Amino acid sequence: MARYGMVIDTKKCVGCQDCVITCKTENNVPEGYDRDWIVTESYGKFPDIQLEIRTERCNHCSNTPCVSCCPTGASHIHDVGGVVLVDHDLCIGCKACVEACPYDARFINPAGYADKCTFCIHRVEKGLNPACVEVCPTYCMHFGDLDDPNSEVSKLLQSRKHHVNLPDAGTQPNIFYLI
Amino acid sequence: MHEIFTTRNNPHVDPFMAMWEWQIPVYLFLGGMVAGMMIISGYFLFSGRHKESNCSCFSIPLTSIVLLSVGMFALFLDLAYKIHVWRLYTTFQFKSPMSWGSWILLLVYPALIANILIRPPQWALSRVPKLSDIAGKIQQHPMLVKNIGILNMIFGLMLGAYTGVLLSTMGSRPLWNTSILWVLFLVSGLSAAAAFVHLIAKNKAESELLAKADNGFLVVELFVFVMMFLGLLSSAKPHIEAANLLLNGAYAPAFWVFVIGLGIIIPLIIQLLAVNHKIKHTAIAPIMVIVGGLILRFVIVSAGQYSHWFNTHF
User: Fold this and answer.
1) Are B186 and B160 within 8 A, CB to CB?
2) Is B105 exposed, middle or buried (0-12, 13-18, 19+ CB in 10 A)?
3) Strand B2-6 relative to strand A107-108: parallel, antiparallel, unpaired?
């Protein structure tokens, strides 16, 4: 089975928020809510300052506390690419998955169900890239099968240093940041 | 300088998690107290204390059903997709404490009803005379009464433990992520239940017994707190910061004044004096214990949501 993931080049991301706006329009995300966002981390003392800009979203982890805690099975791992999704029809809006995510990547949609990034599975199943990847003007985002050693994402991870968010939380995230 | 700036501003998630509001601590408190009341009334049935005509074990189960229903209603109010609540009962998710809890609640109600049927309240008997026949038949079988007591103790234990496990399985929230949390909530539930029964008990010996038991529960609760903090403070940095939220951080005033001071230490001193016949038993100490138990749930739920991992890379 494929394991979909993203590789994001922090040396190229400029934090323009094109991915954020595109996600909102592509997925009808309600105003005031975000499925993806920009994080700017700065460290050091002038003139020795380091800066990392990264676009973040649900990490579609391999070890998923949000799925384990769900009392109805609404939070689940999709057959295609191990993408973590929420079945709106099963969700009761108990908020346990929102609490269980160490990345705070989920929110409660005003319609009542838990909401988050879907890796634009509706596009991916048609052979397209997620909308955020498609629109990035600096080409800093890459999407593909992490289990395929010949995929673009696997080759990038083999050739560049990278990190994941909150490795100590033990969730085995599938979004990697090139540094 | 080390700064992290995010553009995300999701309601109830940013700037820090506040997704669960008053409904969850109220539910956890009432669930814990009912669990304690089930264990106490179950013990009374098991030990044959129900043979005394004014045993509070006859009024506890009915009160428990009312309190648990209020708690479940609070939980229902918290659901964002209320009309889907029935989905809880179309599946059993083995890894989900909330799924366990929803099924445990289904076991708790029949156990409490069986407990009530041993000696139904007068107003119920006058409306449904058939109930006295049922009660008579149950009372003819002492082993059946004992088994109802055992069932109440087991399901009470499961309910009380579940209220803590619900939070402690959340690895994302360092304050909750301690496996001793269910012991804390269970002991606190037992303590609040003992205080409540001490308040309503008509039998003097029973009232005295529960005051003594409550003193024991309060001492154990203090011990569990020490164990919990030792565990958190000797763990990773997020856990140390989480413990410090209560010990000397934003939640310290509420924790030390209302949970430890007014909720445990002061009522413990009052009740120790009372059971040693230095002062009279009053309602003050039990009420302090009950309110302290409620505030404990508010503090743990709120501070736990605030506690978090650090997403830093430098």
Assistant:
1) yes
2) buried
3) unpaired
Q: Determine contact: B33 vs chain A, CB below 8 A.
A: no
> Could you tell me which residues come within 8 angstroms of residue A157 by beta carbon, excluding any fewer than 6 positions away?
A7, A146, A176
Across the interface, whether the CB atoms of B81 and A93 are under 8 A apart is answered yes
Using the CB atoms, write b or e for A68-103: b if 16+ within 10 Å: bbbbbbbbbbbeebbbbbbbeebbbbbbbbbbbbbb
Only one residue has tokens 């989480």, namely: B242
CA-closest candidate to residue A86, choices A77, A74, A97, A69: A74
Residues in chain B closer than 8 A to A19 (CB atoms): none
The interface predicted TM-score (ipTM) is 0.93
Q: Do B236 and A37 touch (CB under 8 A)?
A: no
Per DSSP, B104 falls in state H
Q: Does A14 touch chain B (CB under 8 A)?
A: no
B11 contacts in A (CB within 8 Å)? 32-33, 107
In whole angstroms, give the CA distance from residue A9 to residue A160.
10
Residue type, B202: K
Instruction: List all residues 6 or more positions away from B211 whose beta carbon is below 8 Å from its beta carbon.
Output: B194, B198, B271, B274, B275, B281, B285
Q: Does B237 touch chain A (CB under 8 A)?
A: no
d(CA B155, CA A148): 50
CB A114 within 8 A of CB A106: yes
In angstroms, how far is CA A105 from the centroid of its own chain? 8
Task: Give, for all 314 residues of chain B, the pLDDT tens digit.
Answer: 899 999 999 999 999 999 999 999 999 999 999 999 999 999 999 988 877 777 777 789 999 999 999 999 999 999 999 999 999 999 999 999 999 999 999 999 999 999 999 988 888 888 998 999 999 899 899 999 999 999 999 999 999 999 999 999 999 999 999 999 999 999 999 999 999 999 988 888 888 899 999 999 999 999 999 999 999 999 999 999 999 999 999 999 999 999 999 999 999 999 999 999 999 989 999 999 999 999 999 999 999 999 999 877 77
Q: Choose among B221, B168, B176, B167: nearest CA to B194.
A: B221
Most distant CA pair in chain A: distance in Å? Answer: 53
Nearest to B79 among A44, A93, A103 (CB): A93
